[in-house]
Design goal:
Helices cover 39% and strands 17% of the residues. With 161 residues, the protein is an alpha/beta fold.
Length: 161
């Protein structure tokens, strides 16, 4: 598949919903793909038939994470995610949050990590308003992008806790 525009992603989602299949959505920066990301995506895919992923644009990541991020450009991050068997479709969004994208896609299930409290999950109220549900999944400890960056800066010889 290819990385889709938001409009094409919304069209694809509508088609899938008309076929009676379940659309699942998750989002993030996905700057350095790591075990935590893979576990999140695997768990998200278990929630339905098609997993749609929104990734923050480079400018959006910089606003959220600060100077020096992202490490990889959005196009690279999107292609990497799109190549994973669990991921059905990928798009890039410019905003700080995926709320507009969620409104366009209208997923049945919204998946985020448990590092977000229930009331902090962007789009949760939208998804629930059309009868969908929100799933929060456990994180893999010490496997975040920031921890990887810190290990690299420390010489990458330190054991992973």
């Amino acid at each position: 598949m290819a990385v889709l525009t938001q409009e094409k992603m919304a069209e694809r989602s509508a088609t899938i919903r008309k076929e009676g299949k379940t659309v699942v959505f998750t989002n993030g920066c996905f700057d350095l793909i790591h075990l935590g990301h893979v576990e999140l995506l695997n768990r998200a895919r278990e929630e339905g038939d098609h997993l749609f992923v929104g990734i923050n644009s480079d400018d959006s990541v910089c606003r959220l994470k600060g100077i020096g991020r992202p490490i990889q450009p959005a196009e690279d991050r999107a292609i990497i995610l799109d190549s994973l068997a669990t991921v059905s479709h990928v798009t890039i969004f410019e905003e700080n949050t995926p709320e507009d994208l969620i409104h366009m896609i209208r997923p049945h299930v919204l998946v985020k990590g448990k590092d977000y409290k229930e009331d902090e999950v962007v789009g949760a109220n939208l998804v629930r308003s059309w009868g969908g549900r929100v799933v929060r999944v456990s994180l893999v400890e010490n496997r975040g992008t920031q921890q990887i960056v810190e290990r690299i800066l420390a010489g990458a010889r330190r054991e992973i806790p």
